[in-house]
Prior knowledge:
The chain is mainly α. 67% of the residues lie in helices and 0% in strands. Helix 6 packs antiparallel against helix 7 (155-178) and helix 6 packs parallel to helix 9. The N and C termini lie far apart (57 Å). The relative contact order is 0.16. Mean pLDDT is 76; it is low at 1-10, 67-72 and 310-343.
Amino acid sequence: xxxATLKNGTxxxxxxxxxxxHNGRYNTxxxxxxxxxxxxxxxxxxxxxxxxxxxLGAIYQIYPKKISTSSNTRGKQIIMWLxxxxxxASLGVFVRSLVWMHFNKLIDVDSDTSNVVFCALTAAxxxxxxxxxxxxxxxxxxxxxxxxxxxxxxTIRYHICAWGFPxxxxxxxxxMLYYPRAECHDMNSLGAALKHVLPNYIATYLPIAVVMIxxxxxxxxxxxxxxxxxxxxxxxxxxxxxxxxxxxKFKFCLINVVFICCWLPNLINGILLxxxxxxxxxxxxxGFWYFMAVMNPLQALFNALIYRRxxxxxxxxxxxxxxxxxxxPLLRPEPPSRLHLSSNSRLNSINLSSSI
Length: 356
């Protein structure tokens, strides 16, 4: 039986979906007792706090600071939809954890179908919108690459991918897990676990792995073209252009670091569960669950910081008055404001400008 009980991996992780299965007949198993950690007050209070912070971060990202004629540019639209997905995912975590704190024994009776349905629906909601955030994160990297190559944005394709793929992957994964009677704990063979549990793991972890691999490659390729985009308006390299290019590359790096920090624990948790299930390191697994409970919802806050135009290039404001004047004998001198606009006008459309 233990083959399948814990191999359903927390926040946007298959383990918490396994917790929703009927388990009334197997409460004595170690793996089920570990799963009951999801029902503990300490775990749920951590989820509530982190999800509230995530909700506030997503709202901050969605709420515009000022009305701008460029508010509908390609990059800002992707970032807005990413924030919407972050908001709804964090909201799902908040509602689920709040209900579990109130009903301490939400999933305890084998015949209690209504609680199983509620638990599965909230888990599916959270899984769907977190998968959507991964897709929008990838779409932003693709669109940045397209922009640097001076190609059109694939807006419709982005929406199909970001909303359609999560529905497909979440639906297939949960169908294989719960069909026909949501008894995913009642599996006593490796073949049953591979048939019912493994598809849900693949549907969860494959998108994370793809984004972790593809995004650094896309941003690396995009960074090579930053020089052309930033330097073209004046056909020269000055300290200002170097500063802008360096900070855009730094922003690319931060986007990758934030995603890896938020979701790498999920991958490690899945690897541990599938490779050490004969001798599970209980304390380490539970520690990863708490770490994921903190980091997964905080993605919304981190995204609100790194995708805002002022971060990490806000320090440019402190240097505007002290920037050295670069003489260009072959070019007619232009007002500083015009030079600033010319070097940043195209970057504004993907939210990479160095100005506020």
